[in-house]
Amino acid sequence: MSAAPRFARIAIPSPLPRHFDYRLIAGDPVPAPGTRVRVPFGRQELVGVVLGVTTQSDLPRDKLKSIRRSLDSEPLLPATLMELLVWASAYYHHPIGEVMATALPVMLRRGLPATAAGEKRYVLTEAARRLPPDALKRSPLQQRLVQVLREHAEGLSAARLAEVVKNWRDAMNRLTARGLIRITEEQCLPPRLAGQHIAPQLTAAQEQAGAAILAASGKFQCLLLLGVTGSGKTEVYLRAIEEVVARGDQVLVLVPEIGLTPQLVTRFEGRLNAPVAVMHSGLNDSERLCAWQMARTAQAAVVIGTRSAVFTPMPKLALVIIDEEHDASFKQQDGFRYHARDVAIKRARLENLPVLLGSATPALESLHNAQQGRYQLLSLPERTGAAQPPRVTLLDLKRLKRNEGISPPLIEALQERLTRKEQSLLFLNRRGFAPVLMCHDCGWLAPCKRCDARLTLHRDVRVSREAGSRERPIHQRSRKLRCHHCGAEAPLPVTCPACGSGNLHGIGEGTERIETALARLFPQARIVRIDRDSTRRKGSLEEKLRRVHAGEADILVGTQMLAKGHDFPNLTLVGVLNADQGLYSADFRSEERLVQQLVQVAGRAGRADKPGEVLIQTHHPDNPAFAAIAHHDYREFGRYALAERQTAQYPPFAHLALLRAESPKPDAALAFLRAAHGHAQNLMEAEVVHLMDPMPSPMERRAGRYRAQLLVAAGTRKALHDFLSVWMAQLEAEKLGHRVRWSLDVDPVEMY
């Protein structure tokens, strides 16, 4: 007869790279792996996740503390998800406690019950509906609430009320006390009925892709859907999802950014007779817990989320879809530095189900895997319907004079679209008014005091809606200098700090400057700017996109937020204002990212029956990177780019890890990395792992901290991880490591 378990191994959210043993409470049920417990940890009490139970511990029993109490009667994280998290901790060499915490919503990390409260809605009573229009004229706020709720018979949630009526709660309480409002509580995630959206006729290529996806049901298979922009990848997703949901199973759809979720959710809800849960960082804690619980209990048939949604428990998961799989946003850039695409593929393998990667511009690693037969390649080579690829023209800026960043041919093309009542998009991946503030007398450039970077000039132009839904700048709300790396702000100086001159001007163009220039060039145009600054307020992005789809915008100005995933049928012109950003960079991925970005943004033009045109402003029209864009052949770019990678022995022909360190002291980070390099040299008996010399990061000082890095490369994944496992143990014991903040990034996508 085996001995009863006496200890539990707990994953504690701490930077220590190990689990912790605790004594079980005598007489209490043995906690199952995947459940939460409260445990003493130092002078505090923390919530941990049970990894398992055992009869043995490396520490004497009297040295161990006891679990305070169990928080769950059943596992919140099922066995396969626990296995995935343990694998991720080992693969990315990150503490298991922090990895486990990533898989739980914030409210569960705090120890709150694993239940999701229903959403409260405020509804007018019959007594309120019978009130005469002037009954509440002495209480304008109450009158406004009644007017708003008259237009919504089903009532409104607190979040929706806050969007339309400010400071509404006191007035609502008075109306409720008078019996004019009743409060209802709905299911956390109410079922949504299928809308009126009719599924379009599939092309032959879409039919073939859909058949291949369904043929992979019930087994692990990685499929790469390479479809040109406008080829109907989302429709292929939907057909596959409909089949899976009809069987009673679940689908996980990962998207790289919050900005892609609103229209995707709307489209899915319009087609699927099933509830759709959304998970991203824009949700509040209770909303996220609600979506998580609905997924865990299989009440949500479809989950659409950003990278952390890859860890969502889904008991009936049968298909994983990763949209825009090439996007760098799938890689977490701090803390637990996992890549959601790669984790999703591992999860699909563990759960024995297919995973579909979709993109018009796949990552070179994915393209290589397809070429090697590890992924099944599905192709959508043509746009759907009558849409044709846009005509691409390169505008040589060496021969064209620009008007605040916009060349004469582009200005002429914009005017043509305004005349034809078609929409245009100007793409510039640079926020603010001007990237640099310069003194024209002495050459002083406004520096960030905390970074090796220049401050960006922001004017924050405020606009107002006038008749005809036109936007007009009415005044400049503020003029600030802002660092886009650390967030520091400084007032705009009146005179130059170096020479006292007042001859200060912004140099270069940002989205704010382009918006201002367009308002001057085209005073009758309705201009909408979409970037991180203009969409900070909750719901603002959705409102701007609604206006574009409703035809209430003539010219869009935007950053990479507009580069992918959006479908604007009346948009026929795309202008790329500065195609050379990132063309020549120290990062070996820079050219790949540039081509991906430009192909994606060019694909916004001419997606319906109207022909599209793309004008790309560049100082280097002969660069071969632009040929793939002009020829609409991303695979052409992939062939020569992969050949270059193979020659240089970069991924996918090598496997990398980047050791980073930072400190407020100028030399501390480099000193630690030199010590780390010394430890590595002692481990390297065979030439299977290669180390670069420690060096300052391309931007050495950021947010007041000095940064350095050390690159490790290996020919095989196994060789890299065998080395890292031993090396990391030595680094944990290195005294200099306690004086700096350091981290390991396995499979880095950013090299600085």
What does this structure look like?
There is one protein chain. Helices cover 30% and strands 24% of the residues. The protein contains 21 helices and 33 strands. The longest helix has 17 residues, at 717-733.
Summarize the entry for a quick read.
By secondary structure, this protein is of the alpha/beta class.
Question: Structural class of the secondary elements?
Answer: alpha/beta
- The N- and C-terminal alpha carbons lie at a distance of 57 Å
Q: Give the strand order, joined by hyphens, for the main sheet.
A: 11-12-10-13-14-9-15
- Beta strands, count: 33
Radius of gyration: 28 Å
Helix content: 25-40%
Shape: globular
- In this structure, how is the largest beta sheet organized? 7 strands, parallel
DSSP summary: helix tally:
21
Low-pLDDT stretches are 462-477
**Residue fraction in strands:** 15-25%
